[in-house]
Write a structure and sequence with these properties.
about 130 residues, mainly alpha, 3-stranded antiparallel sheet, 7 helices, globular
Amino acid sequence: MSLTVPPNLLQAAESGPVADEEFVACVRDSLPYAWQTVSRVVAELESSDGEFADNVIPPPSEAERGQLLRALASDAIRSSLERHFGVKLAFQNCHRIAAFRLAAVGSDTYRRFVSTRGQLLNQSPELRDC
C-alpha cells in the first residue's frame, strides 16, 4: 500500500521541504481507512477522560489492514498523524491502534500498552496471519 502522491506535491518535495498539512492531506486521501480509524480513535479519546482510546475492530479486508500497517509502519506518516491530531499513537497488532494523550506518554498505562508483555497478551490464534 503506497501513497498516491499528486504531481504538484511530488514537485514540491523535489524542490524542498513540504508542509505537514500537505503531507497529511496526501495520507488522508491515499489511506482513507487508516485515516478514518485514527480519526475515530482520537475522537473517542477527546470525548473521554481516559489516558487513551484504542481500536479493537479488525479491518474488513486485507486492503484496509494494509492501510493501517502502512500508516503506522512509516515513521514519516505516523509522526505526521501524531502532530496533526496532537496525540501519541501506539500499535500492537494488525489493527489495535491506540491514541494516547501526550501527558500520558511514560505513564504506567502507556508503558503497559507498549511493553513486550502487553504485546504477548494481545495475541490470539486468529491474529497469527494478520
